[in-house]
Each structure stands twice: as C-alpha cells, then as structure tokens.
Amino acid sequence: MGTVVKVPDVAAKRRQRSPAYPFINLQTAIRRAKEFYDQEGRNAAPLRVAVKHWGYEEKSSGGLQTTAALISFGLMQDEGTGDKRKLKLTPNALTILLDERPDSAARSQAIKTAALTPKIHQQLWRKFGTGQTSDANMKHMLILELDPPFNPNTADVVIKEYKDTIAFAKPDSSATVPLAGGDLNAEEEEVGGDSKSVYVPKIGDYVQWEPKGVLQFREPKRVTSLSADGKFAFVDGNGTGLPSSELTLHDKPVITDMVTLPPITISMRQDIFSLTEGTATIQWPTPLSEESIQDLKDWLKLVERKIARSVAEPTDTKTE
Which CATH number do you get for residue 270? Predict the structure, then answer.
C-alpha cells in the first residue's frame, strides 16, 4: 500500500492582503510625532532609533506599523533602505507641533491636510465627502468596489480609524487633498516618495475640464459624484465620467441678470432770467456729452421759434 503525501493547498491558505491603511488614527499619530520631536527635533534618526522613542523594539511589527502610519499621514518622510533607513518629521508635522498660536489657521489646515493624505482616506473622502454615511455603506465600498478589496475584518478597522481621524481633523469642502507618496502597508519597508500636491476633485467642488489645456465648459460645473477609485468625476449636466486628472478647481460661477456699470455722478444746473412779464427758467444735467449738447442747441432753436410765433399771432378778438 503506497504512502499518501498531502500537498498543502497554498491557494486556500493564502491570506488576502488588504490595501494600505493607517495603523493608528491621526490624533495618535500626532502624539507619536511629538514623542519623536522631543528626542530628535528636526533631525533625521535611524529607524531602529526612532521606533524606540515609541516603546518598540527595532524589528517589531508595532514599530514598523507606526512608522508606516506617520508616513501615510505625511507627518514623516524616510530615506535610505535597510540599516541605512532614516526618518525625519515633515514641514507639515512641524507646523502641527510647533504652531502654538490660539486658533491658528495654518495649524488647522495642516491637520486637515494630514487627515486626507492617506490614499484610502482620499478614496473615502471622494466617495462620501462631508456627508454622514453608515458603516455598512462604507464597508460595501471597501470590500466590493475597490481593487484590490479589503477583507471584511480589516474593513471594520479602517472604518473606525477613518471616522476617528475625520472627527478629530474636521475637514470641510475647502480642505486640500494631497497625493500621498508614502502610503505603506503595515509590514512593508518601501521607501516613501515625496508628497506631490495635486488637485483631487470632491463632491460639491466647481471644476473646469481642461484636456490638453483646452477649456470645455463655458462656466465651471459642480461635481455630483465620483467613481470608487476617484479616477473619474461626474458633473452637473454631463452623464459621462470625466478624468479627474484633467479637472481643475474653480470658484463657484456668479450669475447676474444684468451688467452693472460703474456709477456716474450727475448734478443739475439751473439758470433763471428775469423778464418784464415774469421769469424764464432752464435746467440741464451736467456733465453733458458732445451729442447731448448739440441736441440741446437744436431744442433751444425750436423753443425760440415757438416763442416767436406767440408774438406774431396775437389773440384775435371779434366784436359782435
């Protein structure tokens, strides 16, 4: 009787790898950035040193996940690979940590930008904007509309982290959505690139379609919806998705019913001349154009003829 050798089903055991997402929410990430700053300031530090500031060992998954999250939020940037890999805080992180002015608009905008830097946050923001939506609706997008999709358990974690971050940052329709260059999976050690600021359309924005720099709309149009991957936008009056890369942000068009001309100050002049029979009065506006002056001269000639006729044609009294 032969020996039966069982071959493991590799495909069945293969773990579904979800897309990148931050391991921690933004509020926690800012605390980790502060812990790094307290030790290193603006200087770069080797990865093995940086993770110890957060209480992790050099090659622990928690240290790598925290690193990936801070890069994903645009709070840190890295350079080098392996043992030469170093981390440092970004200008956006320094604004958040060091701008202590009360009600600082710059710090508030930096926090909003960080919240919308992770790629998955951009996709959720484009889809749902500032509007409230259910966890079930968001989960449907994450596990069925994205390619590659999230697995259901990870989707629940992403939804909680995203909602916590948005509640903390409070971005609105004016928030800038950058293109994340350092969006890493929790266990990856790829080198994050520099972030490049580009316009990413959001629902409610007014945009102009400019393929090859040629304007296609007479007036900017409002974005009504976006594809799940954010690559196409739909606008008022157009049922075809427009490439997001060809759209530019514009102000809401101002519609007026009439053309408003600059005001002209008009004053009235008057001259009174005394006669034996009474007074003669004439009024005219000033300033007058050359055409109006000529029209007035012509009118005065008509008045002169009328006055002359009143003298030449006295009242004829008949005696019965």
Answer: 2.30.30
